[in-house]
User: Fold this.
Amino acid sequence: MRSQPNTFNISKRKMRKAYRYGFTPEEYVIYDLDNNPHTDYLSEFDRMMFRDQIKNERIIVDNKIVCYSILRNFVDVNTIYAYKLHGDVQCTMLEKSVEQNSLVDLLMKLGKLVYKKISLGGGKGFKLLEYTGDGFFINRTPCSQSDVENLFCSTDNYLVEEYCQQSEFENKLFPYSVNTIRVITVIHKNKTIEPILSMQRMGVDAEKCVDNACAGGLYAEIDVETGVLSAARSHAKEHIAHSYSNHPVTMTQIAGSIIPNWSSIVNQVVELHSKLRFTGLQFIAWDIALTDEGIKIIEANASCSMDFAQTFSGQKNGKIGAWMKEWRYIK
Assistant:
């Protein structure tokens, strides 16, 4: 954990304090541990210990291809058209086998594709590929067809999936990224399933094309009961303490907005978690895209960083902390 970058350039004394209690230097700043008691917050050490205890179960969702293959039997998921692993020249499309060059043909047919690195998260390695009458684009920057071909041929460990057309509500928030909702559901010892935390994520940079907090995106709390959004926050160094009632680029109101059909969304993910009991996963962090036709699952995660949620308040003594103590993942 000591290899974590000192993004905010905190002093060595504060770094030692952060490490002593299991936090990264970035968490030290985000949670304002100069002024807030560290005992209120779940640390990176807590997350790592949790992940270690569920290492057998999380294999199912940590592998994006396996996760997709399971979820598509139960819910509408973002289609993975192809993936490439370990330098194989042949990409294996889950629907049929294709050559790498024909991925360019697929792009020309569909107009948009998403390229992701299989082993990376946080929006790292994400590329939006587009083809229009004006030519090819990578992350909205003009490029040549050979640039796209080289991306498919020269890189490894990637997947290519459909571009999700988000709902009008999400498009108003920010139209240049797919703005996803994170909902965490857990199974209690009494076998009941509960949604215990939800967040709305939003992009801010048209060229990055992602909504991830670590890429500078915004995030707002969603009241699990009502679907009402709070004001948004950011991890960006210069905006760490700032609160956004309106989106800084689109000026769309965030605070007080209500996610359409919220109760239905929550009921669907709870039912989906119930169908996945056979996996042994007691904790699932769902990444959900809203479309005009309903929800679409982008990813499922067996654990997740708590930093974006704990920007608003510590979770160690909240519902997530209580659930982790219930199963003795933490003391």
